[in-house]
């Protein structure tokens, strides 16, 4: 099943009957948006801004500049300085970030986790198994797996494939990603960025 939407000026009602049928939000549900940068990117900020108006949503993310201080409301920020652009250092530190995420999930007990990008999907998938599938997992696919080394890319794609086995739905940032995930038979929703970042609602195409 696949639907296609984009960010626009009219409200896209997510919990309307027969649309996103399994993905029914309720005010008492706890939703976590999982990211790996701070501030979070503009796309995820729009998603957060939309959902926080009606639902109990929190963000877990990683400030890789290692800056301390007051963060945004409903944010849980892991502070570990490695700076941005250091992919190998990020990979080495992911287990520590996983432990941090685990501690927050244990505390919040979310009903839904939206994992932004493939690396966060892998961590969320591991935690879903740890917590015996106690939460729904949505893969917010902003970018395809990539590497300048073919072997590395192949390994990462295989890891992503395994993580998708524990995933309940996908949000694709581009209609061109759809063909890469034909084997994923659960809910697939295309939400493209077609308007300025200040717009924070969904619009049906």
Structure in words:
The protein is of the alpha/beta class. 30% of the residues lie in helices and 24% in strands. The chain contains 4 helices and 9 strands. It has a 9-stranded mixed beta sheet with strand order 4-3-2-5-6-7-8-1-9. Helix 1 (42-52) links the parallel strand 2 and strand 3 (56-63). Helix 3 crosses helix 4. The longest helix has 22 residues, at 87-108. The two termini are 16 Å apart. The model is unreliable at 5-23 and 195-205 (pLDDT under 50).
Low-confidence stretches: 5-23, 195-205
Give the topology string: H per helix, E per strand: EEHEEHEHEHEEE
Biggest beta-sheet profile: 9 strands, mixed
Percent helix, as a range, is 25-40%
Oligomeric state of this protein: single chain
Q: What's the overall average pLDDT, rounded? A: 80
The 3D shape can be described as: globular
Strand content: 15-25%
How widely separated are the two ends?
Answer: 16 Å
Helices, by number, come to 4
**How many β-strand stretches?**
9
Q: What value does the Rg take, in angstroms?
A: 16 Å
